[in-house]
């Protein structure tokens, strides 16, 4: 990132602790608010991630920054026998566990609290690892990515779904107007945490995307790195291999 962005600029806590605090605060409203903010398009993006992995036929999957479990639940369609959803926020996990139980998927999906930069798994454990809208919240991006590489099996697949910034007009101008003015306003209206959606907007705008993020993945040691811009470039799906 070009600069360090944290949820609470006046807090003495580190980014990791602030992100945990923020997601705990907004966990109850997160799903509904996300549908409003993205106009529901995030549902389609997750389906595309599932489509990519379904072709790989993974058996054991790890979904990092799983939040309320949306992607982990969708990943059941890959046919994986075991899916672990990991998140640093107990509040988000509580919502996710409830959803898993309601869908009777507890035999396949396990939701655990954990730190993406210190993964509690052995080397070469997972056939695939996913992160949806989470890598920009890593306190130390390269450490988190290195941990993902470590726990992936050789030839395993890493898929990232993350916001990005459109480069073409008029989408670029529309994106900046929406994220600077509309998104924080929606967040304030629906969330008790006024800083949360301002942070999510700003962190997205400064996060490395496109070729810049591809190059970071290659530097960490991933190969066959490609990115697939989504919906005029407001998000990207990155696919890489160990």
Task: Give the key terms.
globular, alpha/beta, 242 residues, seven-stranded mixed beta sheet, 43% helix, 7 strands, single chain
For the biggest sheet, the summary is: 7 strands, mixed
Low-confidence stretches: none
Beta-strand residue fraction = 15-25%
Topology as a string of helices (H) and strands (E): HHHEHEHEEHEHHHEE
Helical fraction equals 40-55%
Discrete helix count: 9
Backbone CA Rg: 17 Å
User: Mean pLDDT, nearest integer?
Assistant: 90
- What structural class is derived from the secondary structure elements? alpha/beta
First-residue to last-residue Cα separation: 24 Å
Q: For this entry, what is the oligomeric state of its chains?
A: single chain
User: In what order do the strands lie side by side in the largest sheet?
Assistant: 3-2-1-4-5-7-6
Shape descriptor: globular
Tally of extended strands?
Answer: 7
Write the layout of secondary structure elements.
Blueprint: H1 15-26, H2 30-37, H3 41-54, E1 60-64, H4 70-74, E2 82-87, H5 90-102, E3 109-113, E4 126-132, H6 141-151, E5 152-163, H7 171-190, H8 196-206, H9 211-220, E6 223-230, E7 235-241
Parallel strand pairs: 1-2, 1-4, 2-3, 4-5
Antiparallel strand pairs: 5-7, 6-7
Helix pairs in contact: 7-8
3D architecture notes:
The structure is a single chain. It is built from nine helices and seven strands. With 242 residues, the chain is an alpha/beta fold.
């Amino acid at each position: 990132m070009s600069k360090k962005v944290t949820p609470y600029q006046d807090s003495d806590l580190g980014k990791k602790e602030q992100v945990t605090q923020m997601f705990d605060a907004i966990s109850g409203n997160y799903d509904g608010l996300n549908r409003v903010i993205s106009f529901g398009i995030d549902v389609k993006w997750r389906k595309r991630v599932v489509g990519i992995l379904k072709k790989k036929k993974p058996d054991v999957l790890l979904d990092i920054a799983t939040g309320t479990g949306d992607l982990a639940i969708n990943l059941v369609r890959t046919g994986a026998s075991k899916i672990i959803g990991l998140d640093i926020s107990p509040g988000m996990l509580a919502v996710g566990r409830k959803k898993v139980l309601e869908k009777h998927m507890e035999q396949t999906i396990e939701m655990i609290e954990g730190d993406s930069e210190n993964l509690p798994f052995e080397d070469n454990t997972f056939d695939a690892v996913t992160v949806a809208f989470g890598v920009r919240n890593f306190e130390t991006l390269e450490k988190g990515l290195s941990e993902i590489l470590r726990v992936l099996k050789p030839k395993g697949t890493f898929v990232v779904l993350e916001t990005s910034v459109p480069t073409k007009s008029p989408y670029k101008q529309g994106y900046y107007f929406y994220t600077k003015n509309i998104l924080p306003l929606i967040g304030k209206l629906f969330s008790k945490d006024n800083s949360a959606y301002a942070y999510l907007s700003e962190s997205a705008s400064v996060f490395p995307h496109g070729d810049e993020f591809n190059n970071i993945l290659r530097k960490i040691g991933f190969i066959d790195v490609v990115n697939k811009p989504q919906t005029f470039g407001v998000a990207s799906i990155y696919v890489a291999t160990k």
